[in-house]
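Let's practice the habit of predicting before peeking. Look at the sequence and jot down your guess about where helices and strands might fall. Then scroll down.
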Amino acid sequence: MDIVSDQVARSVNVAAYLYGTTHPDEYVVISGHIDTWWSGANDDTSSIAAVLELARLFSTARAAGTFTNDRTLVFASMGAEETGGPDNTWYNWLVGSYEFVRAHPEILAGLVVELNMDGVSLARTSGKYWVENTWEVNPFVAKGIRDLGLGGAVGYYNPVWSWTDAWSYAAKGGGSAIQLLWVAGYDETYHTQLDDMAEQSPATVEVPLKMHGLGTMRAANALIVPVELQHTVDWAVAGFKSEKAAIPAQTAEFDEAITAAGALRECAVAMNAYAAELEADYAAASAEERPALQAQADALNAQFIDARRVVNVWTFGEGGLMGSWDVFLRPAQYVHDLSAVNRATAALSKGQTGNALAALEGVYTMEWGKAYSRETYLELLRERTDVPMYWGGDFGQQQSYVDVQGIYLGLKAGTTSKAAALSELHWIADTQLTPWLVGDLALLENAYSEGAAILS
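Done guessing? Here is the structure:
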């Protein structure tokens, strides 16, 4: 589909389909982005080359009769990953993949996994490739690394970050995404004219081709989709427990979210056990018995996908510092800022202005607020909160920010009394941060309850 901007240019997504033989409405997407900064040999021309090579390999093998794919393979180049959204918004990247997800709900409704690549050919390296992926496919990724003998060359972590197209599939589509990133040593040439062909090596591309090639084959033909939602839940519960300790006043709300997450986990584990039984029964079954077992597996896969689409989109939160765009459990930003505000009010209550100032510097907006003028600070805050978001507004994942700089500057200059500062900080805590936190916990409780209902 075309993404059109009447101000700058036209960006195009291109996708080719190798339709599945038995489950054409279930999908494995293999993608990279076609736009670059400067020559962009590594980021991301290398990934487009890898996508094209995988498309060639699988289509040639299919034509030769040496490979079949039960599910449909989608080989895609995404446009406008680097930039391309409307003017006056900080959230103007990932445009092509975001539009692709919006334009193809049928793919997300049957998505097994999205395999994305972003910079896979750098010759000069000092370390591993890194895979970032959604939690529920951790065993799938780990098994691929282990079976290929790539433990020394590839590592993985969670979750997918909001700098790459995998974010669109996971956080906006609710799918499983596996993002293969460049190796160490690329940062000094990233987004510069030095990202040219002299720095690339065909040999380096072998690792992502093996990783995503194996992942494609397994995901395309697996009896059961590789979704194990308890890994998502475990991450969320660990976050809830840590955050509850930081904000004990909301213990009841945290406990309700933890309880809902626990019920979801029980259902997920039971579904995994059922999936293992189906796989064992299918392997031992006769040709006459297999269609009935396949039907049970198909029903199970549909439930896994439906539950994942609910759980993933509501679990993600995004925000943090201007320079990093943290991805975290949904209420984490409010916990972080509320904890800082609470420390500041406690310090002021004891007359400790210096400690209060140090605490306020921990609020996310004070990354620039502690160094800039009030005028510059407010302009930056406006760009983070008042401008239209291209992809940041869906599901409320982009967390809100609070303004404590005026209080900070007043205390520092001695123009704001401790009593006035206390009053303003209590207002921020009581009317902004606490309701936002409680609201997010309620959203997660509902999402995990819905996910459990789907699985049960």
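How did you do? The chain has two domains: 2-221, 225-456.
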